[in-house]
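Dear H.,

Thanks for agreeing to be a second pair of eyes. The structure we're designing against is below in token form, covering all 292 positions.
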């Protein structure tokens, strides 16, 4: 009924080849991995990394578009770095994080190499260096979802980067409703993944009912790692059990039977934007003339 795939980030703590080898995949079976790409300012570094990822059998890349730079991550700044803390194994030229008057520098180091100028015009570059599937991670509005469909991409991830990059950004589940209202055609053109806020099996079911292809979990797995492999396995079993129970209680036996009618969104519908841009506020010219 459910299948788990792991998304490995450019910022991972171990090189991609070590991660793949730890899975001990059979020679003819691709590893159950997606690769999350942060594009480097030095494009040749990203090109070399993509070649390496392809050679390891990974065929889907998630292009990160919601983090042109690291946000104001106060929790990260409170984490003091120790002497053993390393940089980013998959990205050359990135130094070790250090402590300074702003606190721990891990977040700033992990974002220091990212190309801040990445935009839609860079898709041809990516397609020249990646022949597999391309999914955009970090879509936060119906307009960009429509553009992704027009560009012929394979999928999008609705994500506010765990709520830790742009403060007060809306949750991904609201963007899913935004697509239904303002760009319903994308559901037949793209795979739509939902990232963020998934904590229970009922959360998974709500997202699937509202049209998500699948969901992503981050923090739950991070927390479960405190208990080693057993913690991760327990989390997966718990999510499966909760999802199965929720499905039974709404009267379905397969996720293919999930539909929006099983979810009541009345309490949040007023938060879904009805138009592109602000519904009534308009940018005004500056008036510096004092009023008497």
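And this is the sequence the design step returned. I haven't edited it by hand at all.
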């Amino acid at each position: 009924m459910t299948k788990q795939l792991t998304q490995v980030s450019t910022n991972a703590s171990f090189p991609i080849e070590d991660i793949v080898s730890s899975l001990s995949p059979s020679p003819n079976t691709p590893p159950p991995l997606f690769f999350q790409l942060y594009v480097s300012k030095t494009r040749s570094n990203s090109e070399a990394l993509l070649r390496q990822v392809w050679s390891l059998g990974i065929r889907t890349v998630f292009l990160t578009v919601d983090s042109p730079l690291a946000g104001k991550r106060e929790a990260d700044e409170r984490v003091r770095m120790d002497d053993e803390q390393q940089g980013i194994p998959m990205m050359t030229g990135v130094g070790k994080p250090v402590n300074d008057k702003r606190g721990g520098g891990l977040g700033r180091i992990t974002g220091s190499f990212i190309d801040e100028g990445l935009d839609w015009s860079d898709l041809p570059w990516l397609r020249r260096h990646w022949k597999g599937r391309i999914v955009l991670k970090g879509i936060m509005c119906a307009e960009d979802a429509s553009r992704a469909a027009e560009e012929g991409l394979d999928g999008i991830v609705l994500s506010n980067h765990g709520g830790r990059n742009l403060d007060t950004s809306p949750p991904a589940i609201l963007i899913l409703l935004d697509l239904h209202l303002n760009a319903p055609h994308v559901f037949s053109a793209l795979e739509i993944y939902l990232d963020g806020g998934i904590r229970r099996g009922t959360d998974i079911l709500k997202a699937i009912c509202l049209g998500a292809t699948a969901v992503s979990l981050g923090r739950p797995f991070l927390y479960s790692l405190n208990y080693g492999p057993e913690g991760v396995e327990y989390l997966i079993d718990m999510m499966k059990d909760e999802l199965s129970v929720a499905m039974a209680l709404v009267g379905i036996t397969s996720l293919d039977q999930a539909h929006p009618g099983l979810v009541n969104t009345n309490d949040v519908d007023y938060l879904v934007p009805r138009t592109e841009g602000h519904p009534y506020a308009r940018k005004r010219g500056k008036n510096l003339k004092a009023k008497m």
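Two observations from my side: The chain has a mean pLDDT of 88. The two ends are 71 Å apart (CA to CA).

Warmly,
E.
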